[in-house]
Design brief:
Structural class: alpha/beta
Order of helices and strands: EHHEHEHEHHEEH
Distance between the termini: 48 Å
Bound molecules: 3-methylbut-3-enyl trihydrogen diphosphate, magnesium ion
Radius of gyration: 20 Å
Strand order of the largest sheet: 3-4-2-1-5-6
Largest sheet: 6 strands, parallel
Strand content: 5-15%
Shape: globular
Number of helices: 7
Number of strands: 6
Helix content: 40-55%
């Protein structure tokens, strides 16, 4: 029989080239379950792995995830330690995975404040994946957008002081080249789950013309279908970049 089956219209999705995710809501997720905040970070880390793979499958070319901000040191020492231990564990476990997957992993942020063993693991992860030509994954760790721009300004000022460049040569492209994300394209979409409507110092330069999608779901509950919904919402946006 024709015409009996109800047709479900496919909702068009659009895949951003460069996606930023603020992985927020771990603490509230745990609290709702009567668990310590750290438990939320454990589940959040699992979701991060799953969603990273899904992003690669969908065709995202650059993914930046906010894992720890320059302001997150204000949290109780116990929580900071738990997050750092999770990072250690993730890096150790992932080194084998990294070989198989076509993902280039990089870290953005000020690593000087991190423990030496973590810094070495980060370097190893970057070294082992440097030649990969699939998705680039930036993990923002001890990252702050203001700190990043300040560091870039300092780098350029040092070049001026050394007589390598003149102040008038400094333009947007040169400043961009001094950021952690150097040669990467601008961010197309910033996704923030957890019901907060703010950027919290994430990719402030790179997201000048990004679209924003805020979702109520807490990060540990975030599913592939939520990412699909975000891509559907992104498809509806009319990006004008100041034009008409
Ligand atoms: C995000 O979840 C993870 C980090 C900031 C490390 P939160 O820990 O901020 O969770 P909420 O926002 O308190 O629920
Ligand atoms: C932003 O979330 C940082 C990360 C997700 C790593 P926060 O939870 O730290 O941000 P605020 O405090 O709600 O602005
Ligand atoms: Mg939070």
């Amino acid at each position: 029989m024709f015409g009996r089956k109800k047709k479900v219209a496919a909702v068009p999705r659009k895949i951003p080239v460069n996606l930023g995710i603020i992985m927020d809501g771990n603490g509230r997720w745990a609290k709702k379950r009567g668990l310590p905040r750290q438990a939320g970070h454990v589940t959040g880390a699992q979701v991060f792995r799953k969603i990273t793979k899904y992003c690669q499958k969908c065709g995202v070319q650059y993914l930046t995830v906010y894992a720890f901000s320059t302001e997150n040191w204000r949290r109780p020492q116990e929580e900071v330690d738990a997050i750092m231990n999770l990072l250690r564990q993730y890096l150790k476990e992932s080194l084998a995975d990294f070989q198989q997957e076509n993902i280039r992993t990089r870290f953005i942020g000020d690593r000087t404040a991190l423990d030496e063993d973590i810094r070495l693991l980060m370097e190893e992860a970057e070294r082992t994946t440097a030649h990969k030509d699939g998705m680039t994954l930036n993990i923002a760790l001890n990252y702050g957008g203001q700190q990043e721009i300040t560091a870039a300004a300092r780098k350029l000022a040092e070049k001026v002081a050394a007589g390598e460049i003149s102040p008038s040569a400094i333009d947007e492209a040169m400043l961009e080249g001094a950021l952690y994300t150097e040669d990467q394209p601008p961010v197309d979409l910033i996704l923030r789950p957890s019901g907060e409507y703010r950027l919290s110092n994430f990719l402030i330069w790179q997201s000048a013309y990004a679209e924003y999608v805020f979702m109520d779901v807490l990060w540990p509950d975030f599913k592939e279908a939520d990412l699909d919904r975000a891509f559907e919402e992104y498809a509806r946006r009319d990006r004008r970049f100041g034009g008409v």
